[in-house]
Amino acid sequence: MSQEIPSHAQCVIIGGGSIGCNIAYHLTKLGMTDVVVLERDKLTSGTTWHAAGEIVPAVLGAEWECELYTYGRNLIAGLEAETGQATGFRQVGYIQPADTTERLEELRRGAAFMSRFGIEMHEITATEAAERFPIGDFSDTIAAFWYPLEGRTNPVDTTQALARGARSRGARIVEDTSVQDILTANGRVTGVRTDKGDIMAEHVVIAAGMWSRQIGARAGLNLPLQAAEHYYLITEPIEGVTRDLPLLEDAHSWAYFREEVGGLLVGLFEPDAAPWNIDAIPENFIFGEIEPDWDRVVPHLEAAFRRVPSAATAGVKKLFCGPESFTPDLAPLVGEAPGLRNCWVAAGLNSLGILYGPGIGMALAHWIVDGRCPVDHTAFNVDRFADGSHNTPAFRHDRTKELLAKSFGAHFPNDTFKTARGLKRSALYDRLKDAGAYFTESHGWEQPDWFAPSNAEAKIEAYSWGRQNWWDWHAEEHRAAREDVILMDMSSMAKFLVQGRDACALLNRISCNEVDVPNGRVVYTAWTNDAGGFEADLTVTRLGREKFLVVVGENSHGHTKTWMRRHIGPDQFVTITDVTPGITQINVHGPRARDLMERVSETDLSDDAFPFMTAQEIDVGYFRVTALRVTYVGELGWELHVPNLHAVQVYDLLKEAGADLGVRDAGMQTLSSLRLEKAYRDFGVDVDNTDNPIEAGLGFAVKLDKPGGFIGRDSLARLKAEGTPKRRMLQFLLTDPAPLLFSNETVYLNGTAVGHIQVGAYGHTLGGAVGIGFAETAGPLTPDDVASGTWEIDVAGTRFPAKASLKPLFDPGMERIRS
User: Fold this and answer.
1) Sequence-distant (≥ 6) Cβ neighbours of residue 523 within 8 angstroms
2) Does this entry carry the keyword Oxidoreductase (predicted)?
3) In the predicted model, is pLDDT for residue 3 greater than 90?
């Protein structure tokens, strides 16, 4: 391969590991052949060379994970035949044991979901697991899952095969070339500077593994990524270990096992992981190893040996320690970098670069060539960290300790990170803590999840797939919202002031709904891409002729800000100010919300004077606040946007004034159950960039005839013209009050699988578990089909009857909201 660098390329990829070569391979398959891969040393010399090379799915909990996994498994299986380069792929199968009922519940739920995406698995007995993996101890195992199609590959050979495929279609791979800087002009990337000269380029991709954070920092990019020590032990040969031994993943001991030259490779994802080189990864760390910390690792190896006792007595050939990079939320960093057009990122694969590399390469290649991502990007889009958080040395040091085990061990609903907490607290944090709040974490925010009574024992979460320890307290919060009045701290909602001469023009061009409305109007709208896929769902409030307030969920903070800024025209004057840090949002909701508000405000709050979906500046005690009469829970109420300076005083005033009205604090669990009873949608949870407002049942907020149109208008018009969709979002209610819905439960219509639940909760008012999800049939899915069909939902292998509805099952006429 030539080591000369060109002066220009259509795309330059920084990094010659699994990810970089996958991107080059897929770009060239799409016809972009003027591609250059720059590797500072030799291909795979970073972390790819020491990867374990397992192609196993674990328990995948999202559509995008299943899609990327199955795509990659199938590509790797056929890569040798395509390129002529041996990859070492072997289909030996994969076993996951469950030694507890909770782990079995997790695996059963995961199996039902993953099977919809072509991942074959079978529940087997402990005896059958021992037959397949005879050196294992399954004496405590209740059941296990067997994946016959999964296997392993050689990471180095597989990467070389990808490189060969890319070169055969015109890509150039240049080794021994270090990228010193990313060149930019006017907010766009223009190329790279190397130790051999500059290369000008239309696109640059940062795919440099654990070096990506510091490379991105040179261009002012925030890429929160941290390397951690990763261990595996290789034993001498063990009797009974053959090349056909299946892979074994044991979440109970945070260990995995596979054959290695007649012995075992015993890998660890231990719960007290060690961050490595917090400040910077050495540039000269080539095919490098880390000196093992035997004292820290031996107890974890001993726990692993209990699963495979013969490994404890086998000779140790090597204890290997090498770095792997992890992100703060265990999702990859992929997509166009916020603030720098045509600079792309593909990093932070959380030790799963071989597993997800082909899928990430495919998705990013389409993103670059087609202008949009072909899979749901809401979880891994790099712009979720656009606010610069999660990247201080102290945060990365503390969070990384938890990440390995978090990625590997058993999982529960509502589980959250325990380390590096307190990144974002509202002004009410201490008040809510004193009121009994148990805090969960979302995108750095401390959010009250539920409230314990003052006489309760320590406020801790007892994780379970059943009714958890907070169940009864949460049910009381839910009833208070439906019968009396609740307060919710929703300060985590992202808030932007959009102002200037062209603010209205910008927002109207990116909004499906009409936002050129009178002052004081609140507009619910979706934002879509050219294909009609969601990019946000939010509210836009007109505060003045050239002043708007945009409010969106915390999970869309970075993406919303980036989307707005990217669509400001070259001749437009618009300022976008993130006011989230300065505003405390207190939601007052419930049938007695007006009674409470009238006790603290002289403003006329009647329905005539302050109708639904309007906003006013009002008095609350001594203070002036912006009040929006909107709801996300299906009840009368207001969002109060209070300056932090006055937040505690306003909260205290509301609590005191509402004491005899039954006012109660409520948390995120209650928000979820209330909004799902009303079937409200949530971008990034229920709908994503591969969905559209027409199929999601939000056509009422799409104004196809508004002057000037909007981004995605033509695509949505074509969908509308096709008539009744065959894929539609429905609300579901289990008729049996016992089982619970969380997400991913398979939905059946007349005995045929037609979809799955996107998110579920318990509808305490409706009397059963409730959820929303898409159902897709061969022909148009009509209202009659929905009403007359026999619906069932699979919960951990058991099908339960369900009711389906196109309209909200709770208050479909919106009488309560407009009261």
Assistant:
1) 511, 513, 514, 515, 517, 539, 540, 541, 542, 613
2) yes
3) no
Residue 576: φ, ψ to 5°: -120, 115
Phi, psi for residue 388 in degrees, rounded to 5: 85, 5
Same domain? For 169 and 50 the reply is yes
For the purposes of burial, counting CB atoms within 10 Å of the CB of 2, is it exposed (0-12), middle (13-18) or buried (19 or more)?
A: exposed
Confidence (pLDDT) at 1? 43
Of 340, 363, 386, which residue constitutes the final position of a domain? 386
- How far from 243 is each of 92, 186, 657, 670, CA to CA, in Å? 8, 56, 72, 52
Distance, CA of 510 to CA of 807 (rounded, Å): 27
Tens of pLDDT, residue by residue over 362-380, are 999 999 999 999 999 999 9
Whether residue 184 lies inside any domain: the answer is: yes
What pLDDT does residue 460 have? 75
CATH of residue 518's domain is 3.30.70.1400
Burial (0-12, 13-18, 19+ Cβ within 10 Å), 574? buried
pLDDT digits (tens, 9 = 90+) for 744-753: 999 999 999 9
264 DSSP β-pair partners: 259
Other Cβ atoms within 10 Å of 177 Cβ, number: 23
Pairing of strands 247-250, 768-776: unpaired
CATH number of the domain to which 26 belongs: 3.50.50.60
In a domain, 10, yes or no: yes
**How far is residue 466 from each of residues 105, 113, 361, 759, 765, measured CA to CA in Å?**
10, 18, 38, 16, 19
Domain assignment present for residue 5? The answer is: yes
Task: Mark which of 369, 386, 403 sits at the end of a domain.
Answer: 386
Together in a domain, 81 and 201: yes
Strands 8-14 and 35-38: parallel
In the block, tokens 């792997």 appear at 324
Reported residue count of the chain is: 819
Judge if 498 and 379 occupy the same domain. no
Q: Which of 155, 138, 629 is nearest to 351 (CA)?
A: 155
Instruction: Give the pTM.
Output: 0.96
For residue 68, the enclosing domain spans 1-89+150-225+327-386
Q: What DSSP character marks residue 679?
A: T
Say what the pLDDT of residue 386 is: 81
CA–CA gap between residue 101 and residue 265 (Å, rounded) = 28
Residue 635 placed within a domain:
no
* In a shared domain, residues 211 and 340: yes
Same domain, 502 and 374: no
Six-digit token string for 768: 């059963």
Number of separate domains in the chain: 2
